[in-house]
Amino acid sequence: MKPAPFAYERPRDLDAALSMLAASSGSAKIIAGGQSLGPMLNLRLVQPELIVDISGLAELKRAEVSGNELVLGALVTHADIEDGRTADVTRGAMRGVAANIAYRAVRNRGTIGGSLSHADPAADWISSLAALGARVTLRSLGGARTMPVAAFVVGALESALHAGEIVEAIHVPMRSASSHWGYAKSCRKTGEFAHAIGAVLIDPAVASARVVIGAIDTAPIVITDAAELFSGRIAADYKQRFDASVADGLLAKAGIDDAAQRHIHVSVLKRAVQEAAA
Ligand SMILES: Cc1cc2nc3c(=O)[nH]c(=O)nc-3n(C[C@H](O)[C@H](O)[C@H](O)COP(=O)(O)OP(=O)(O)OC[C@H]3O[C@@H](n4cnc5c(N)ncnc54)[C@H](O)[C@@H]3O)c2cc1C
After folding, report:
1. Residue 171: helix, strand or coil by DSSP?
2. Confidence class of residue 45 from pLDDT cuts 50, 70 and 90?
């Protein structure tokens, strides 16, 4: 199929893009890398009157370390991160995630801001950035607001973006030297979207753990105080203390009734915990 007809604008800067969105009263769509929007247009799942192409906006391509965080413009591509063109404050965690998104042609064009905005439950950044404790800044003509990635994704293909807002930047906190990172996903074929994701950031030195169970048909389950998953205490032996029955219970509570599906998610999470401990 071909897209329904639409008008096309390529704004010269961020303010011009925001003005176009504000004037469109919700009938416009932003395009960044086009890797998700392109197919949706072709299938006529979306039929905007106007496409605002932000892919040329230099303001959204910046990547810089500021204080104890990395600030990534929304247009930073998966390949930019994979190739190390952005600073690595996560001790290789983001680089590893980026390198395993789809295949290289998608990673060359797909952007971190586009991936978050699209909020596909099976996508990698919504789960991994939630586990890393990242925040996202949204900008509109009225100003900017910043929120945790974990709060930004509210459901399947649903984000906290209001009409007229653009994802401007992603703030990734510096990962401490004592923390352990594990990320695992299950895909039918390499390069395909995941049907289960587990992401863990565990710091036994300060007894903290953030755990994310993703690709569950809605917003990822984010557990910021994850001691219950480790028999009540996060310590050096957390791999042995991992309690699969607690993870299973969390998935059941999230509405996953199929025991086989829960088993896949729990197994993938366990792999992430094992990877962190390795
Ligand atoms: C074959 C294939 C396999 C894939 N496999 C994976 C995978 O395994 N894992 C994975 O994570 N992803 C996967 N993807 C998706 C890919 O990562 C896309 O890059 C990503 O989902 C969207 O990024 P984009 O820049 O292309 O956004 P676009 O397609 O341009 O836009 C997507 C949506 O976000 C909105 N948007 C874009 N940028 C902004 C912004 N700055 N502010 C507000 N709204 C914005 C658009 O309006 C649109 O609604 C795959 C894609 C393809 C085509």
Report:
1. strand
2. very high
The CATH number, out of the four listed (3.90.400.10, 3.40.47.40, 3.20.20.70, 3.30.390.50), of the domain defined by the range 180-277: 3.30.390.50
- Grade residue 1 by pLDDT with cuts at 50, 70 and 90: confident
Query: Where along the chain do its domains lie?
Result: 7-53, 58-173, 180-277
Q: Is 72 in the pocket of ligand 1 (CB under 6 A)?
A: no
Does residue 74's CB lie within 6 angstroms of at least one atom of ligand 1?
yes
58-173 CATH fold = 3.30.465
Residues in the chain, how many?
Answer: 278
pTM over 0.70: yes
Work out which ligand 1 atom sits closest to the CA atom of 138.
42
